[in-house]
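Q&A log
Question type: sequence-to-structure
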Amino acid sequence: MRPRRLPTAPELTVRPIRPTDKGALLDLFERLTPRSRLRRFLAPKPSLSRRELAYFTEVDHRTHEALVAVDGDGVLHGVARYASGPGEATVADVAFAVADAAQGRGIGTGLARLLFDDARANGLVRLQAMTLPENAPARKLLGRTGFELTGIDHGVLELALDLRAPATAQRRAA
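Response status: OK
Response body:
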């Protein structure tokens, strides 16, 4: 796949994550504040295990995809991913992380739109997300990209996006 650019951060290249990105992903994780880690993982997360690093970087690029925004020095500034459960081919969960110093520049939204295009091309029809009610940046990103609230479970918001819906394509184009 050809590297792509984000309109809001043209100095960054977007590409699929690679198994060789373990160190760069760990570096991104370490540049997240405890609050950003809580927002991403929905629980305190002081570190990533080797098993988690392998899971996050060794993806099949069909049922589990991760796109990274990388600068010219190979530093990751953001990652957007979807992952389907075992045996599931049409529904996946999504998650995003953007380095604290890079937040507010549209990196997450740009990555999301590219990720959703890839999900659609890979046959997914529905994406799901969970976020904490106080995570205003995630709620804004998810709302801007067409996710709708489907429920609340133990204080966590559950949202979904139908990738087949015409409104999704219109919202993405806006």
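Response note: Helices lie at 22-30, 34-41, 50-57, 107-121, 136-144, 166-173.
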